[in-house]
Design goal:
This protein has one domain. The protein contains ten helices and no strands. With about 200 residues, it is mainly α.
């Protein structure tokens, strides 16, 4: 458990994505303390989502590739929620213009998905993370997946229909159902509706 005295843990020295001396990723600490939103906003210069836009690597951001990878302490993989609930949320909440940019990049990510287990995992994890943040009042100016008729719902529907015809669909059907159930509990029913048609 961090004490707050580790190198890099002091308020004015925190950098998004860096680690404390104890190995705790800074963004994950901040996520657990919503009142520190001002700290996050003051660190926009180090914001990973902003860096991804500037370097043309937003698709890597959503997939947790390279410098955008945040390892999970519980499983062998990337913590999508840390990036969506941290850097992406902070960037989007800076202004309506930033939020519009986030939405556009998220739509591009949806259209860039390959029919593979890896990309399916990235899709489901990002959807769950986004909907969880929205249910807690995050992404104030973003309205993705608000109703079934939106283009992003169509994109997810098209993608999952392709997945349903793949050789690995039997292996991932329960995973899709779990995420659909989770998202449903957060007030978003679109994935449940799509899953029922697969």
């Amino acid at each position: 458990m961090p004490t707050g005295k580790e190198a890099g843990a002091y308020k004015d020295e925190w950098t998004l994505g860096s680690k404390t001396k104890g190995g705790i990723t800074i963004i994950m600490i901040l996520m657990n303390f919503p009142n520190n939103s001002e700290i996050l906003k003051n660190k926009m210069i180090n914001n990973n989502f902003k860096k991804a836009i500037e370097s043309g690597s937003v698709h890597d951001f959503f997939r947790g590739k390279g410098s955008y990878f945040i390892p999970s302490p519980d499983y062998d993989g990337h913590v999508h929620g840390a990036q969506i609930g941290g850097a992406a949320r902070v960037y989007a909440e800076e202004s309506r213009e930033n939020s519009k940019e986030f939405d556009e990049f998220f739509l591009e990510f949806l259209d860039d998905l390959e029919v593979s287990e890896d990309d399916l995992n990235h899709l489901l994890a990002n959807l769950s993370s986004y909907c969880a943040q929205k249910s807690r009042g995050g992404f104030t100016y973003s309205f993705l997946f608000e109703n079934q008729n939106r283009s992003e719902c169509d994109s997810v529907n098209r993608y999952l229909n392709k997945v349903s015809k793949s050789s690995f669909f039997g292996n991932v059907k329960s995973q899709i159902a779990r995420h659909a159930n989770f998202i449903n509990k957060k007030g978003y029913k679109f994935l449940s509706y799509i899953f029922e048609t697969l």
